[in-house]
Amino acid sequence: MLNVDTVSVHRGTSVALEGVSLTIAQGKTLAVVGESGAGKSTLIASILGLLRPSKGTITWSGAPVQSCRPALVMQEPRSALNPAWPLLQSVMEPITARKARLSSGRLERLCAGLELPVELLDRKSTEISIGQAQRVGILRALIAAPPLILFDEPLSALDAVTQKHTARLISDLQAEEGFAALIVTHDLGYACAYSDEIAVLKSGRIEEVSTPQAFVTQPQTDYGRTLRDAAFALGALEHAA
Q: Is residue 83 assigned to a domain?
């Protein structure tokens, strides 16, 4: 279980996160939503160990979170792929870095689940579509079987059709692999459809945490209600009521 316990991140006199507490059980998904500048990226960086909290702790099953080696799926999928390398080399980098052994057939099974032809991995990132690059990024995150995967706006670079397809693929793979997932997103429709809980972040503080159904029907705060109403106005929650 991921446990973020009263974490604060201060940058000089500014506050990026203040007293943030969240938990994610194995196999479950927490979506963190909020406007730009709310602290979502700072939260991800803190969980990855790229930022040291000023206060509080981040643990995985009672141990430092780095012990579980969380994986990241980046917002811009090509950012995680070295353009000079064949895609297979980028995908296998987590295995190489961990000096781990890839179980027989795992690469082929994951490629099949992501609907990626294995031979596509002979290409470079500049030779594939943005949708394929996102799926390669997900493959790279999954290859070493991490118990925790962080998704930073994983659908934002994709067209609407590819967004739905990729969201379903992630959900299906989570059901099969059993990893815990933290999804940072502006897309409340995606958050409500594919998460077990939604946390609303504003100005570095958690405003509310609830189930998707409770968030859609009865937000706990004025800010949550504003986000919910805006999503309804844009049609993002038209099937969630």
A: no
Helix (H) or strand (E) holding 130: helix 130-142
* Residue 132: inside a domain: no
Domain that residue 47 falls in: 1-69+187-236
Tally of domains within the chain: 1
Task: Output the CA–CA distances (angstroms, integers) from residue 88 to 70, 84, 119, 140, 173, in the order listed.
Answer: 20, 12, 9, 9, 20
Which helix (H) or strand (E) segment holds residue 33: the answer is strand 29-33
Contact 2, 180 (CB under 8 A): yes
Please report, as a single letter, which amino acid is at residue 233.
A
CA–CA separation, 170 and 71 (whole Å):
14
Is 157 a domain residue? no
What distance in Å separates the CA atoms of residue 130 and residue 41, rounded to the nearest whole number? 22
In Å, what is the CA distance from 3 to each residue of 207, 208, 218?
18, 17, 26
Which CATH number goes with the domain that contains 223? 3.40.50.300
pLDDT tens per residue, range 178-225: 999 999 998 899 999 999 999 999 999 999 999 999 999 999 999 999
Q: Within a domain: residue 31?
A: yes
Tokens of 105: 């057939």
Q: CA-CA distance, 66 to 50, in Å (whole number)?
A: 10
pTM above 0.85, yes or no: yes
Residue type, 66: Q
